[in-house]
Every structure is written in structure tokens, then in C-alpha cells.
């Protein structure tokens, strides 16, 4: 499923992206990050960030009021 979980619940844009960037820098290529977010803008911001930064956005899944965003670390 995933290698690490990053809790960004309650944080507003751009904090989920900034925290994802920092965490992904410390992860090995190919590892998967599960970012938990409540900010609706994360559905737009995270895929865009991944495209620009060379990571793979694997999709999102709703878990009640929280959305789980899966990101595979790139080079």
C-alpha cells in the first residue's frame, strides 16, 4: 500500500504541498507516501506539484472527511 504516512489534516494550501515536498526529499525513489488532507485544494495542488517535481501522483481516496493522496517518490 504505502511506506509512510504524512498527516496534513486541518492544514490549508500551500502547507500540504510544502510538507509533502520535504517528506518526499527524504524518501527513496519508488517509495509511496500517503498524505492525509482535509483541504479540498490538495486535489488540485498535489497532482500539479508531482508533475513539476518528478513524482508520480497515484490518486486519491476519500476516507470520511479526510482524503488520502498517494504519491510515489521520483528521482
Q: Which structural class should the secondary elements be placed in?
A: alpha+beta
CATH architecture: 2-Layer Sandwich
Q: Give the strand tally.
A: 4
The biggest beta sheet is recorded as: 4 strands, mixed
Strand line-up of the largest beta sheet: 1-2-4-3
User: What is the name of the CATH superfamily?
Assistant: TusA-like domain
Low-confidence stretches: none
Distance between termini? 20 Å
CATH topology: Translation Initiation Factor IF3
Shape verdict: globular
Roughly what is the average pLDDT, rounded to an integer?
97
The CATH top-level class label: Alpha Beta
Key descriptive features of the protein:
35% strand, 75 residues, Translation Initiation Factor IF3, single chain
Amino acid at each position: 500500500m504505502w511506506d509512510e504516512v504524512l498527516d496534513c489534516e486541518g492544514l490549508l494550501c500551500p502547507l500540504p504541498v510544502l510538507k509533502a515536498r520535504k517528506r518526499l526529499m527524504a524518501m527513496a525513489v519508488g517509495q509511496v507516501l500517503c498524505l492525509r488532507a482535509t483541504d479540498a485544494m490538495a486535489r488540485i495542488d498535489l497532482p500539479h506539484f508531482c508533475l513539476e517535481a518528478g513524482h508520480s501522483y497515484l490518486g486519491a481516496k476519500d476516507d470520511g472527511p479526510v482524503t488520502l493522496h498517494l504519491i510515489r517518490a521520483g528521482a
